[in-house]
Amino acid sequence: MMLNQPYTETETVQAAAAVPATAPAQPAVPAIPNPRFSSPLQDLVGYFQREAGMYVLPAGASTPCTVIGSSIKLGKDMVHDAGDYIAIEPVNLTPYLKLKLGVPAPTTDEKKLQVNCYDGKTVMLDDVSYGKDEYLAMIKSRGYDKAKWDEQAVLHGMYLGCEREAKIKLGEDDKLMSIYLSKSSYNAWKSFLVKTSLTKAPVRYLKLTKISNSSGTFNWTQFDFERYEPADEAQAA
């Protein structure tokens, strides 16, 4: 979608041949960096993968968020309307490739074919592993001639607030966000990285604003990025 992609992702795990005598240790979720000593935004790319060997967080470990239609939605089943912006303390960014079928309105079954590739090499469908190029060729052989890989990303961060903050109450354990970026939103992120790297000024907090774009007869919504300063810190300064 040129709208931000649906946030739901299907994770598949192949069962082990035998149950081990002791349960294997679960990978630790990386500690959240201290905002007072934030790393450059570039260092957030792949932070979870480097620290804990995970590209995305397990289901239920974070609150999903993305642009849907005319507003930013968040929460389970995207029930909360955050309005036109959300503010976060960025923690991690995981780029990935998403297979797009090239059809305007994919069915439920077609959406299952639109898998994600996190390592740039392999994908999973129905517990079967395929090479990225092999999978694309298979999909095209099924009649989806316009199928291609799109660059997208998921941005993780601690929730600070949003336009409709008074109407949204998140518990402390729900403030770690997984914000799904479409191709257009991810391109905006990359431009923001270049801009902030040139100024070399640290970016502790981010404001993600929903914007509308158009090209010819095609319209879409996406995220735009800018620095953010919480009100309490602005007053203290």
What distinguishing features does this structure have?
alpha+beta, 237 residues, 9-stranded mixed β-sheet
Give the overall form: globular
Estimated share of beta-strand residues? 25-35%
Please count the beta strands (DSSP E, at least 2 residues each): 11
The structural class is alpha+beta
| Whole-angstrom Rg | 19 Å
Number of helices: 5
Q: Please outline the major beta sheet.
A: 9 strands, mixed
Helical amount: 10-25%
Order of SSEs: HEEEEHEEEHEEHEEH
Outline the low-pLDDT stretches. Answer: 1-25
Q: Residue-averaged pLDDT, rounded? A: 83
The assembly state of the depicted protein chains is: single chain
Give the N-terminus to C-terminus distance in angstroms. Answer: 42 Å
Characterise this structure.
- This protein has 237 residues and is an alpha+beta fold.
- It has a domain at 36-95 and 156-236.
- It has five helices and eleven strands, in the order αββββαβββαββαββα.
- The strands form two sheets. Strands 1, 2, 3, 4, 5, 8, 9, 10 and 11 form a nine-stranded mixed sheet that branches. Strands 6-7 form a two-stranded antiparallel sheet.
- β1 and β2 form a beta hairpin.
Helix/strand layout:
Blueprint: H1 47-52, E1 63-68, E2 71-74, E3 80-83, E4 85-100, H2 108-113, E5 116-117, E6 122-125, E7 128-131, H3 132-141, E8 148-162, E9 176-181, H4 183-199, E10 206-215, E11 218-227, H5 231-236
Parallel strand pairs: 1-9
Antiparallel strand pairs: 1-2, 2-3, 4-5, 4-8, 4-10, 6-7, 8-9, 10-11
